[in-house]
Fold:
Amino acid sequence: MMINAQRDLRRRNERAKNLGLALYFIPALIFYAVFKYFPIIYSSVLSFAKWNFVRDISWIGVKNYVDMFSRTMFVTGLGNTFRYIVAFLPFFIVLPLLLAVLLLYVKNRVAQSAFKSLLFIPTVLALSICCMVWLWIYSPSFGFLNRLLTSFGFSSISWLSDKSFAFGAVIVVCAWKYMGQNLILFMAGLLNVPEECVEAAHIDGANEWQCFWRVRFPLIMPTVVYMFITSVIFAADRAFTAIHILTTGGPSYTTTNLAYVIYEFAFKSYNIGMASAIAVFTSALYLIITVIMMKTLGGFEYHE
Structure:
C-alpha cells in the first residue's frame, strides 16, 4: 500500500510539473499561431484567389501561379534574387572569414579588440539609418563619393539611378552593414577549435594553410552553413529595407528582389492574390535551397 501511494504521488507530481511546463509554452504558441502560422495559411489560401482589399474574394485556382511567370517584375526579381545571393557571398562569408583568420594572428589583444569593434559598429545600427547615411554618400550633387571623383577630375555618377551602378550600390551598403557581424561569428567559431588539433597538425609538418584548410575549416563548417543560409534569407527577404530606401526597386527593376516584388504587387498594385502566390513560391524556393545546402554542406554537425 505504501509503495502504491508513493507511486501515485510521483505520478501526480509529474502531471503537475508537465502542466506547469505547458502553461509556459501556451503564450509562445498563441503568439506563433496568430502572427506566424495563421498568416502563412491565410496567404496560401489567398494565392488561389483574386482580391484587392475592397472587392469580394473570387477564387481563380492556380491562375496566379501561372501568370506570375509572365510578369516582367517577377521574372526580373527572381533573377536578381539569385544575383544577390552570389554577390553577397564574398562579403558575407569569404571576406569575414579571411579577416577573422587574420585577426587570430594579431597577438596584441587591444589592437585585436579595436579592429573588431571598428568592423562591428555598423552592425549595431539600424539598416534604415545606414541607408540614410549612404544616401548622402551616394548623392549625385553633394555626395562624398562624387566629390571625391570630381576632385580627381572625373565626372559625377548617379550611383542609385544608373543601371550600371545601382545594384552594386545596394550590395555595398548591405555588406558594410553585416560584414562585421559575420566576422564576429567566424571569430567565435575559430576560437572554439581545439588548439590540440592545430598543434598536432603542426607536429605532423602541416603549414598554416594546411592547418586552416584541413583542421580549422572543417571544424567551423556549422558556422559556414549558418552563414550560407542567412545569406540566402537576406538576399530573398531582408535586403528589402535597403532596396526600398535606396532605389525603390529601380531603375527599371534592376535592384528588385522577390520580397520587393511581393510588396509591389500587394501594396502598390493591390493584387493580393498574386502577391500571396509569389510569397508561397518564395518560401518554397527558400526551403528547397536550404535543404540542398544542408545536404551538400553537411548540416550543422562536424566530426572531430
